[in-house]
Amino acid sequence: MSTLPSNIKRGSAELAILALLEEQPLHGYEIAKRIEKQTGGVLRFDVASLYPVLYGLERRGIVKGEWDKAPSGRERRYYKLTPAGKKKLQPLRQQWKEFFRALDQLAGVHHA
Amino acid sequence: MRDWQAEVDDRMRGLKLCTEARNDIIRELSCHFEEIFEDARERGAGEQEAREQALGSVRDWKRLASEVQHEKESFMTTTPFKRKVVYPGMVALVLSAAALWITSLLHHYGSQYIFYVIQAPRYFVFNIPWLIALPFAGGVGAWLSWRHGGSVANRASAALFPAFMYFAAIVSAMITSAIFITIVTVFHIGPRPGDFRGATPMEWVVRILMLLTPWVFAPALSCLVGAVPFLWLKPHTADEHPATEAHA
Questions:
Q1: Single pTM value for the model
Q2: A79 lies in which domain range?
Q3: Chosen from A12, A29, A37, A74 to mutate, greatest number of chain B CBs within 10 A
Q4: ipTM entry
């Protein structure tokens, strides 16, 4: 499957990251791996595209990063949703739903 | 074992942040590359190939450094100490200075009940309404520190910040006046009554206590009283970072 252009990827990155972090705290590499796996490779984040988004979310108080021990015993910086992030997630989901609905009406684009 | 931090540090030369923030980012990115490398090795890649897969995932290091810097500098160049102690403490200081200004105005316009004087053996002058207002300033400092994830020590320090500043101001004033008086009186012969040059060590202690007791120790105690309810709160981790309005 082909990958999406970078501007769409970047626009959807916040939702993807927040949705994953809603389930459990994750470190950067896990976030990238899970996004790739759960989207069948359509969304793929490398270091250069993931961390600026994560740091932006952290700066805005939506996620919070903290060093913690991974199951491997090594220290990793885990990100978790803050209460502000939890509040942000629902409207963000709604915005994307409306976006796809609008596209659907306009061009017959269906989303899963 | 490969030193990923050295490799990333070398490539992220363009990242100009305070040492603590920079090291934290280098460490985090290194962990990511290490995971890519190990995954590639598990899939059977050779060491060199796995290394290229990891580091090759970034095409433009300069741009990455610039983007990371843009996101981080407004947040991480402000050190945790500033967020948890200095800024909350400065708010407490401003509040305490405002209270001092108001009580001084009241005194200036004739209120008789502002100052309480103890003569033992010298005058100790306490500004009672100010001391009563200070728990509010200390409480605000401690609360703001707690809001930014401050520890108990951070919260107490933020509450005591006004007292630290008054102490610094008094010490500076004492040193300045001592130098000034020494210079002005250098041509005078011998000490004069009231001149600090003739003071015994005990008189020195009393004079210093005359200043420190009403302007440092009593305010410190007063600020701390206001901070007490916030010292027992559980650490606040929910909103450690100053959240600005998120944009979609």
A1: 0.53
A2: 6-107
A3: A29
A4: 0.85
